[in-house]
Amino acid sequence: MKKLETEVLIIGGGPAGSTTALYLSRLGYDVTLVEKKTFPRETLCGEFLSKEVTDVLKDLNIFDDFISLKPNKINAFRAVDSSGIEVRSDLNFEAYALKRSVFDTFLLGKAQSRMVNVIQPAEVVSILKTKSDFISQIKDKSGESFAINSKLVIAAYGKQNVLDKKMQREFVNEKSNLNGVKFHIPVSLLNNISSEEIIIYTNQGFYCGMNRVNENEMTVCFLEDRETSKIPPREKLVDMIKSNKQFNKVFSTEALQYIRSVNIYGTGNIYFGKRKLIENGIIMIGDSARVISPLAGDGIGMAMESAKLLSGIISRNTIDESHRKKLYLDYVNNFDAAFTKRLKTAGIIQKFILGTIFRKIGFGFANKYPAILPSLIKFTRSLN
Q1: 285-324 pLDDT tens trace
Q2: In the chain, at which end, N or C, are there fewer CB atoms within 10 A of the end residue's CB?
Q3: What is the architecture, at CATH level 2, of domain 2-69+99-174+270-341?
Q4: Residue ranges per domain, the chain?
């Protein structure tokens, strides 16, 4: 069997994996990244790029190239409840929206241009931790298997992966009724849409976010609690549109027909609880580490921030086996300090929104006291 050698193996070529690869290559490490899918590809995501994202892009000196992709500028947040109550706030920070197929391809291309060895499409099927190294078994598109020896393995493969079960991660047996679905819809099928707002529509057990990602398309991304309804996601969205007067105004008859036939990207059984950051010596970043409520609009931001955070810790340590315990401890402590508050805040808000009584009370309170909404936004970010 063919064997490759590398210092750092990264599993996953999304924002967390590609950002880590960019930082570690800048530090002079020999980095190999394995990505299962062929790019460009879509994935479940609201596609909101917050200030945390733009800060990392600037730090990596690729922000100008990002702007050349013509991302849509987002300046405000608006939430509309089925009760008719509406709240709005300026974001007061730099934010954009861009299709993940475009953004992820851009980041991975930047990693390749900076001497990161990208193996794609290929899948890591197993990882063996030895006394001093890791041996990862890889299977490529043709079915050929080979091994990669590395001093460090970083998992950036997202919310769910077959490796989670193989590593017997504690959360894999947890059951969640929360499902997420995303698709794109032509702007021409929608009415009175602002290009500069991210808009959330809410109902019992369901919320839907929309933002423009280019001149012609909107992202529609929604989370549903399947415990409250077993209706198929498309039909549930259509029902919500019809029952929410404000939401209904946005969609033309042609839009409703489009929803019933468009390709959708979804994930079921999304687990938002705590996960171990180190599993069998493998370091978890991005959604592999923790999944933040989509309401926060900070999933990509956290992915890229955790990549920067980890890379900074690696720069102050070594990746040799004799020093890994300190590296692991520093990462866990710094991750918790950076993200625990916003994860908890986003989780509490999500529970309120998916409920009935607390959702209505919350909207009423935020409508009466407008200063609350900017404060809540601040607590779900790294701005405080």
Answers
A1: 999 999 887 766 689 999 999 999 999 999 998 888 888 9
A2: N
A3: 3-Layer(bba) Sandwich (3.50)
A4: 2-69+99-174+270-341
